[in-house]
Amino acid sequence: MATFGTLSDRLSDTFRNLRTKGRLSASDVDGTVREIRRALLDADVALDVVKEFTGKVRERALGDEVNKALNPAQQVVQIVNEELVEILGGQQRRLEFAKKPPTVIMLAGLQGAGKTTLAGKLAKWLKKDGHTPMLVAADLQRPNAVTQLQVVGQQAGVEVYAPEPGNGVGNPVKVAKDAIKEAERRQFDTVIVDTAGRLGVDAELMKQAGDIRKAVDPDEVLFVIDAMIGQDAVATAKAFQAGVDFTGVVLSKLDGDARGGAALSVASVTGRPIIFASTGEGLDDFEPFHPDRMASRILDLGDILTLIEQAQEAFDEDEARKVAEKFATDTFTLDDFLGQMQQLRNMGSIKKMMGMLPGAGGMKQQLENFDEREIVRTEAIIQSMTKAERVNPKLLNGSRRLRIARGSGMTVTDVNQLVTRFEQAAKMMKTVAKGGMPNVPGMGPIPGAGFSGGRGKQQAKKKGSKSGNPAKRAAENAAIASGAKSTTDAAASGGSGFGIGGAKGSAPAAPSAEEMAALQRFMR
Amino acid sequence: MFAKKTIDDDTWDDLEDALISADFGPDLTDAIVAELRAKVARYNTTDPADLQRMLREGIEERLVRFDTTLKLSERPAVVLVVGVNGVGKTTTIGKFARFLRGYGRTVVVGAADTFRAAAVEQLATWAERAGAEIVRPQQQGQDPASVAFQTIERAKAQGIEIVIIDTAGRLQTKGGLMDELTKIRRVIEKQATIAEVLLVLDATTGQNGLAQAEAFVQHAGVTGLVLTKLDGSAKGGFVLSVQERTGIPIKLVGQGEQIGDLTGFTPHVFAQQLVG
């Protein structure tokens, strides 16, 4: 539920107190696990599944990977996500087709799960792939289900086999059986059998479904389940597994705002993979299932994973390492700075990026104030410099600055500001890269704080915000101690002074609000 | 859980699990457990049977705070039926029409679900079974509001007492479709006051039921809830949160696919079924 904010916000809250401590204690982790439990229950994941899941997460969260991470909250979210994806997509697979056609696909599920609509979507999808599907109207229970399937079949442009009028008349087992013969005779290569909706507790109808299964010997039995279903998902899935032993799951109505925890419950309890997701009323609103997207949805993570991915793509690890080396040896030049900025631009619009953060709502105003063209202007200034000037800004005397200002269409003041900021930042970065604590203006992020961590601070815009974060200090000290590794880790903390290296390092973290603010300050 | 000799820590854990498994949701579960803990402490009891009774009474108390009677006194009394896809709107209308015919009322149903394939035919079958009149759209994909308008016109012309309007299922996140609902409402109100707007909720739904209710209350002015598919293994505990959050009472309960499987809502029976 939205009122409680997203899981990542909640976790950040839980972790906020941890900045005074170097390590996570068991009770800290318990607090976190409680939040995760709640988030999962809010998303309608079945209780038993939640218990097992949180147990696993707790174990991993107490391990070293979290303690060593610069940002424990993010690391825990990452763990949760990994575990979710594993359950959801461990056995991701495609439809299996029979060696000897026709391939028979049977649909089963509760009333109103969306079987008939799905039958049409599946048929259309198969047809597009070059198959010749035939729909079979074996739902003779619900009034005019047969008519509905005929209409859907017509829309999809596929044949519908409907020998019985339905509305309680006819034997679905016989219809299904005849349909296979019909398909063989008329050489359809796939047969999709639409069955009546039935409750898991209805023994008689479950037996009928089992009989249909026996009669048609399907290659795939797809269990269609509504993404909005609650705790009952487990009982229903188990009943259907016992009754028709489905081979795959289709999650329907994913276009709503249900978080779809049922997906996790069903996948976890039955061990059957989710093959398709159905996302609308149109016949084309149908797609293979993406476990990772579902995981984020269940956790209400916003697009953070996409963001992390983008950040990882945009930042070349070697590049980051080189930059870190340059910091350390005091050879960081305006050229390198330009390169970094261009990398940042590669990630796309900064405003859009910020919008992907689940907790970014509160930062709207600051986002509005951020002028993306600022980067372009800075780029222009640097590009108006000669090679020599870029390597050694000390060359920049009054007349050179005037030339640069004219060349870039800016004023001399702008050029002066850029140079001053660059020098300050380079100095600071040098200190950080060497493992010291910087105490110069323009200090960037506090990695432990997460996205929503230090909002108050950045509004205050104080010089040298308290960076006495022991987690960070510890990480940096460890990085230095481990010698060879130090450059990479330094890249993680060093680069972030520009608000652009934050996504590197052991814990892939999104550029945080502070990082953005630091960047913004730098640009002005 | 209630079969044990005394109330101990396990009892509370089991209670919490049971409530969550019945889709009460984490918030309401916490509230109920806290309330019961306080009561148990106050009455100084250790008997799980007392706990069970208190739980049942507590739930019943929450349910009876709202008036569950249907108000169909206008003539014609217009009932608009709304809900997300596949919750059982059309089936509920069929059963409801029969329910009203059982009291000797004349009923006309309006097939304003002009979107889903064969929805009109499905409603027609139900209308025939229930012995109700039906107004069909004149063409495929006709504006649902106009079908509703014509249905009420027909009711007025023929002196039919109760009008039930079926609408297409729509997910609460679809802004355009929700606006369409508002339009249907507006058009109906030009002809007659709306007696009831019934939101149909599927008992198997989880915490999303709350989001559904809030959206439909906002766009369609829901006055009552119908809980369907209660004959399955789902308990539908989420309606308690829905009732509490929106202040809208449950008015009808659907318990099967047969035409007689619809009853009025009795808090006592519902609480009994939930708790056992």
From TrEMBL, chain A:
Annotated catalysed reactions: GTP + H2O = GDP + phosphate + H(+)
GO cellular component assignments: signal recognition particle
Alphabetic keyword roster: Cytoplasm, GTP-binding, Hydrolase, Nucleotide-binding, Ribonucleoprotein, RNA-binding, Signal recognition particle
GO MF annotation terms: 7S RNA binding; GTP binding; GTPase activity
UniProt-annotated binding residues for GTP: 109-116, 194-198, 252-255
Protein species of origin: Orlajensenia flava
Subcellular location: Cytoplasm
Protein name: Signal recognition particle protein
InterPro entries assigned: AAA+_ATPase, P-loop_NTPase, Signal_recog_part_SRP54_M_sf, Signal_recog_particl_SRP54_hlx, Signal_recog_particle_SRP54_M, SRP, SRP54, SRP54_GTPase_dom
